[in-house]
């Protein structure tokens, strides 16, 4: 993979520690920062229906704890 840098600039390699079983700490390359994406509630519900296929399963998926952590808001589905 080719690396690019400005003339005269020094590239610092960023690493993060990864804990493994047995208290072994390994170094891994840090991932790139994730860019934020605007997603509407309708888009989330439509994607949940595509994945789950049923109304109850989609509602459970949208209101799950993992979805709350990913979106930063708690979604409550009232049926």
Automatic annotation (TrEMBL):
Protein name per the record: Chaperonin
> What organism does this protein naturally occur in?
Cystobacter fuscus
